[in-house]
């Protein structure tokens, strides 16, 4: 009976609700998506992050998860506990207000990277694409402060941009079956760090000893949507030291 009542109640609401420069659409019977402008853009993503955080902070009854992407926010809910009408109105209000909630850029999270060699087998290929030396590629990749637009693919994989167009090499024609954890890679205008060994088709230019996702940490995710990141080159002992420090933090938190 309760499920029938929920279906009847939800049937009174349109599947697509366009309002100004965003729209609200349903995705099945337990999710609703707020979509902003259809482009990859820091300002658009700023609104996405602001909306996601406001909904998470509100702890609305029946809301199970809030997932931000490049230009949309998916809100998953329990249809037996959620007042769909109230949720839709709340999302409309928060989405409109999100214009004024774009956050001031945070201090970048610095990620050490050993570029090239066995750790960056595609550095030479990216250099050939760019018509530059490998040292130039390293300089161009490590110079910008990147924005984390979203997490996806596997837990902790952050899609970051925007890569300098000179080195924005496309994905490999044949993906690798295994990409080592910590691999730093580029694909078009994006860059990212593989948090675990997995298949992958991005161009691997280096490796970091840091772990983007670690369940032994109090906060498993190193990065979240809206963060800012800057890579910096390291060699030799610096790689081992950075890795030891990361492991040390995990062990310390584990003992608490």
Describe the protein in words:
The protein is an alpha+beta fold and 256 residues long. It has six helices and 14 strands. Strand 1 and strand 2 (22-26) form a beta hairpin. The relative contact order is 0.13.
CATH superfamily of the largest domain: Cyclophilin-like
Question: Mind telling me the CATH class of the largest domain?
Answer: Mainly Beta
Share of helix, binned: 25-40%
**Unreliable segments (pLDDT under 50, ≥5 consecutive)?**
1-19, 248-256
Return the average pLDDT rounded to an integer: 86
Strand content: 25-35%
Number of helices: 6
Number of strands: 14
**Which structural category do the helix and sheet elements fall into?**
alpha+beta
How would you characterize the largest beta sheet? 7 strands, mixed
> Which strand order does the major sheet show?
8-7-14-6-13-10-11
The span between the termini is 47 Å
Name given to the CATH architecture of the largest domain:
Beta Barrel
Topology:
Layout: H1 2-10, E1 16-19, E2 22-26, E3 31-35, H2 42-58, E4 63-68, E5 72-77, H3 84-97, E6 109-115, H4 123-130, H5 134-142, E7 146-151, E8 158-161, E9 176-179, E10 183-187, E11 190-193, E12 198-200, E13 203-207, E14 228-233, H6 237-255
Parallel strand pairs: 6-14
Antiparallel strand pairs: 1-2, 2-3, 3-5, 4-5, 6-13, 7-8, 7-14, 9-12, 10-11, 10-13
Helix pairs in contact: 2-3, 4-5
């Amino acid at each position: 009976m309760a499920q029938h009542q929920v279906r009847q109640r939800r049937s009174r609401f349109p599947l697509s609700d366009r309002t100004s420069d965003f729209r609200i659409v349903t995705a099945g019977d337990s999710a609703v998506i707020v979509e902003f402008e259809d482009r990859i853009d820091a300002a658009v993503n700023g609104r996405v992050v602001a909306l996601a955080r406001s909904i998470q902070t509100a702890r609305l009854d029946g809301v199970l998860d809030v997932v931000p992407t490049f230009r949309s926010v998916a809100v998953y809910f329990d249809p037996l506990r959620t007042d769909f009408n109230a949720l839709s109105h709340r999302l409309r209000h928060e989405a409109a207000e999100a214009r004024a909630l774009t956050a001031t850029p945070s201090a970048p999270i610095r990620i050490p990277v050993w570029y090239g060699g066995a750790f960056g087998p595609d550095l030479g290929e990216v250099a050939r694409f760019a018509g530059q030396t490998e040292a130039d590629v390293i300089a161009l990749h490590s110079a910008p402060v990147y924005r984390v637009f979203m997490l996806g693919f596997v837990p902790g994989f952050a899609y970051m941009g925007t890569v300098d167009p000179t080195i924005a090499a496309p994905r490999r024609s044949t993906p690798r079956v295994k990409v080592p954890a910590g691999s730093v890679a580029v694909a078009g205008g994006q860059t990212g760090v593989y948090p675990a060994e997995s298949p992958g088709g991005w161009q691997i230019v280096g490796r970091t000893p840091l772990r983007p996702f670690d369940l032994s940490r109090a906060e498993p995710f190193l990065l979240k949507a809206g963060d800012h990141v800057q890579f910096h080159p390291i060699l030799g002992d610096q790689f081992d030291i950075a890795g030891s420090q990361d492991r040390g933090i995990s062990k310390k938190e584990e003992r608490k």
